[in-house]
Amino acid sequence: MSQKIYCTASFKPKPGKEDAVFKALQALEPNAHREDACLLYTVTRHISNPFAEGQSYPIVFHEVWANRAAFEAHCQRNEIREFFASHLEAEDGDIEDANVCVYTDEPVNFDAPDI
Q1: Would you say 32 and 38 are in contact if contact means Cβ atoms under 8 Å apart?
Q2: Which UniProt keywords apply (predicted)?
């Protein structure tokens, strides 16, 4: 049975703040990579491509965690909580909106063996 958690965190910077938000998110990467259960933690920018013309917020974090507990522990770290408090929740923050979702690759009603 897979216990991995996949997180997609999309960010909409305030006008003119895209570079500042991207750099602030990049600054979170080194410490997240130090977490044993962090399998992937990469911030990306939206680019134009004729084969993928969908709509998205301009900055997206792709995360893969070994399990739910590890993801939830990561979210409770001071560095992560302070990022959201200062950049999104604060009136003078650089982020207009964010959308953070988690996913599993576990099929519904998967017949996982007990080990």
Answers
A1: yes
A2: Monooxygenase, Oxidoreductase
